[in-house]
Each structure stands twice: as structure tokens, then as C-alpha cells.
Amino acid sequence: MEKKEAPKSALDALVSLCKRRGFIFQSSEIYGGFAGFWDYGPLGCEMKRNIKESWWRFTVRDREDVEGLDASIIMHPAIWKASGHLDTFSDPMSMCKGNCRKLMRADQIWDVFEESTLRETLAGMLGEAGKIATWCKGKGKSAAPGLYTVQHPEYLEKIFEQLKTITDVKELFILLATPEGETNVLPCPNCGGVMTEPRPFNLMFKTIVGPVEDPSNVAYLRPETAQAIFAEFANVMVASRQMPPFGIGQIGKSFRNEVTPRNYIFRSREFEQMEVEFFIKPDEAVELLCGHVAPLTDETDLSEPQADWGWECWHKYWVEQRKQWLVKNGLPEDSFVEYWQKPDELAHYARACVDIEYRFPFGVQELEGIAARSDFDLSRHQEHSGKSMEVFDEPLKLAVKKLSDEEKAAFRAKTVAEWEARGKTAEAANAFLDRLFEGRYIPHVIEPSAGVDRMALAMLCNAYEEQKLVDEKGKEDIRTVLHLAPAIAPVKVGVFPLVKNKPELYALARDIFKKLQRRYNCFWDESGAIGRRYRRQDEIGTPFCVTVDFDTLEKDGTVTLRDRDTMQQERISVDDLIRRLDDLILG
Prior knowledge:
Layout: H1 10-20, E1 24-26, E2 38-40, H2 42-61, E3 66-68, E4 74-75, H3 77-83, H4 85-88, E5 90-95, E6 103-105, H5 109-114, H6 117-123, H7 129-137, H8 140-143, H9 148-151, H10 156-165, H11 169-177, E7 199-202, E8 206-208, E9 218-221, H12 226-231, H13 233-240, E10 246-255, E11 270-280, H14 283-290, H15 311-328, E12 336-340, E13 352-360, E14 363-374, H16 376-385, E15 391-392, H17 394-401, H18 405-421, H19 426-436, E16 440-441, E17 444-451, H20 452-463, E18 464-470, E19 476-482, E20 493-497, H21 503-517, E21 522-524, H22 530-540, E22 544-548, H23 550-554, E23 558-563, E24 569-573, H24 574-586
Helix pairs in contact: 2-20, 3-16, 7-10, 18-19
């Protein structure tokens, strides 16, 4: 059955399903809710667990070059000073000076306006000056009480002719909100008032460590999981007996005091991240060891890492690895796009960054990012902590020893020129080369970073479908189904006895259920017609259902195995059932 494109209201329908069936609840709902915080119900926590387990298996457990870490949420505040978070981790914040006094991110104000009913109202009156004036003097008093023309309707006469010619709803909103004699105002999308000039607002949550509430005891909930990996780099490398190239993976909670949390679980104040910091040799070390650095071309084979890879090959490799994982877990490749950040969009320390963006119902937004972060993070922590983050590479030292003085001088001259072309100083280049010739360097980093919550939302959005079915009598019906990948689905198998008033049949079904339950998360359902039971499982994304009927008991000992996506059923022996489900679920 061909899958239809999700309607515009798909997110609203999905939010309703997620609450009704126990995927996601608003946190503290009985007290009116708590913006930016969400609770995962029985099915939601299973789905999140499956996403994290799949990521961990693919990224850490199935590889020999990635180790795991589970670091504390609260760390020494000096870490955030070294990383730059204390000084620069902020969003531009504006406050409405009008009626509502709301705070919101200045760079998201127009996004909020685009989704508002106020925009719809204004768009419906474009070019009709009389209607706009009537609205400002009437319904506008409740819809946008902070709007200048609502508070000063006499001003409408002065701009009446302009109202006839405006064809852009954003331009109209600015005109109606701008006080007489002022220019360049930023209107509030909530009440129409004027927003203050943006000011930086640090996103980290503060807390106090210890019994005394004193500035010296201030600490922070981590805004990302990455810095713990950098701080523990040396310990993990020694304990695991690894050498670059190798990575450290971590899944954990992060916290950001978002000014405007929005779009359901997409932008929250408490969220989980799945991150790898993959440490690689600097390109200069690769060239000394291999005699060259492999160029990245369209023909480069990225299936298996190679010793002569520089940062460009490693970066592209991890982009492809992340895409491979996404497709494996149910996101079609045509549902997301790669966005390569332009040079003026990159962080000052980054050499490249790719955002994998997904087409959410509310627009194309970042799902995860893969950044080439150079040696910035480890260098900063070495500088601020006084502890070495260098690696000693014995083969590199031996390779340098084999070079003549002329070859070293030529290599030095070439490297200095390359560094200066990237805006770095000759002094920094020479200091780096002095250590490199001794076999020492600070590794560079490739960082694939994904959000668990955003991933769950993307998978739910992609999976949600309302199918129109027509039975043999021509009667129409709507089937709501979540086409979740079997590895991600919260419930893998639903088990049903056809009837519950036949003890032998019921007992056999319970026995099958108990055996399957040892391997997968299963759901037992004995109430209602069998078709209704199928629909309930379709709605929560259960990929397979097993029905035990009279033939199971009295004839051939087979059960009915039903596929969620095709709705096809087949008879299969109880002995073969587990083997078949393993193939279908585990792949």
C-alpha cells in the first residue's frame, strides 16, 4: 500500500496519539504543565531505550575503535570556562515591552509569528485597509492588545493609504506595531507589542554544590555531553590501550535553559544526546607516517578506514556512517538532507560541519550534526588545566628520524605556509612542528552528535500514517498506523488467543507469550474482536502479531503471524516462530 504524504496537521494528530497511547506526556501536567520538559510514558521510554541501544550497538559495541563513557552531569565549573560556555554559550533574548511581557529568542520571533493565529488573521486582510482598521478597533483588542494601532487607532488614518498597498504579511505586522516616529522595531508575535533590543542570555542551568549558597559553590548542569569526553580523554586512552584514530562514545542527559522551547520535543530544556568524539592524527602526522594524505574525491572508498586518511576523509566517513544508521532505523534517505555549513557559518575552530536535516511537519530542521572540530577542545583543556592532552606516537617519532635535515626543513616550510594560509601564525606552526618531530601531538576531533529526543520525533513523524481502507462491501475505514522499524518499535510482538473461554487454547497462547517475552517486549491482548486488537497494535507501531486459534490446538500446530505494514498473514509452526521473528526483528 502506497504511503500518503503526511497532512499539514500531522504533528497535532501525532501529539494526540502520543499522549493517548502512552508515548509522551507533558511534564507536571496536573499542575498546568512545565514548558520545555516532557515525560516519556510506557511506550515512549521503550522506544527511546531502543533508539539508544541501536545507536550504542552500531557506534560503540560493534566497533573496535570506539570506547564508551558515562560521565557525571555536574562537573567542575572550570571545564565550562575552558570550553568557552561560560562566556559565549548564549542566545539573543528579547522581552516584550507591551502587554504580555514575554521573553523569547530574538532569532526565533519570526518563526513563532509564522505559526501564530495572528499571522493567519493578518494574512486574510492584506490590501483591505478598511477591514484592518475595523479589526484593530474591534477584535484586535483581544487578539493583539499590545499592537500600536490597537492602542492608538487614530494612527490608522495616517497609514491608511499604505495599508492598501502592502502585500507581505510580515511588513504589515511591522507597520501596525511600529509606534509613530520610530523605525526598525521588532514586534511581539504574542500580543503585538514592541520587543526590546536583543541581549545575550546564557543557556546553562546554575546549581549549588554543598550546603552553603555561595558564589564559590556555583556549578552547572552540563549543556552538552562532549566536554566530559574531552576531560576524560587521557584516562580512557590509557585504560583502553587505544591510540588515535579512536573514539569515545557517550549517551546522556543535557540541559539548556531555552528561552523559547517549542515544536513539541524538538527543542526542550532537558534532553538526551548521543555523541562520539573521534580522535584522529593531524594531517601532518599522517603525511609523515604514510608519505601522503589521501585526498577526498567522489571515488574515495569510505567503507573501511585507511591509515592514510586525513581529516576530510574521516569527516565524510562519519557523515556516511550516520546516514547508514538513520536508514537502517527506518528513516528513508529522501526524508533527510545534508547541509554543509558555509565558511561564514562555521564555528571559528571548525574546519567543516554537516547538519543532517529532517523534513519535520514544522519545517526542515537539524536532526544531528557531524563536525570537524580540529584540536580546539583538547588544546583549551590542556591550557586551562595544565595537564597534557598530547599523545606520544612512537611510529611517528621513528618516521621523523628517517628524514634528512633537508627533508625536515622542506616539510617545515610547507607546513608553515599552509598554516599561514589558514590564518594561523608561523610561530604557532613551528611550535606544533617541534612537538610533532618528537612524536607528540594533540589529536584532532570528528564529532557526530545526535539528539535522542529529536531522533524519536523524526521517527514518529516519518512512521505516522492514516490509511483509508475499503472493505469488500465498499465501507470506508481509517487505519492509524506507526510504521516504526522493528528494532525501534516499543512493542515487537502482540500475542492474542482467538478466544479466552477455551482453557487449552488460552494456556497454549500464554505459553507462547511467555517464551517470546524472554526475547522481546511483547503485548498480551485477549479482549475484543481480533480486528480491533490488530488496530490497537498498529496504532502503537507493533510490527508483528501472533494469533493462537483453533487450528493451532486441534490441527497443524501453526499460529497466524501478521505483518503490520502489509497486513498479510501467514501460518507458521510454533517451533519456527522464534527463528522467524529473530530474522525479522534483529535482521
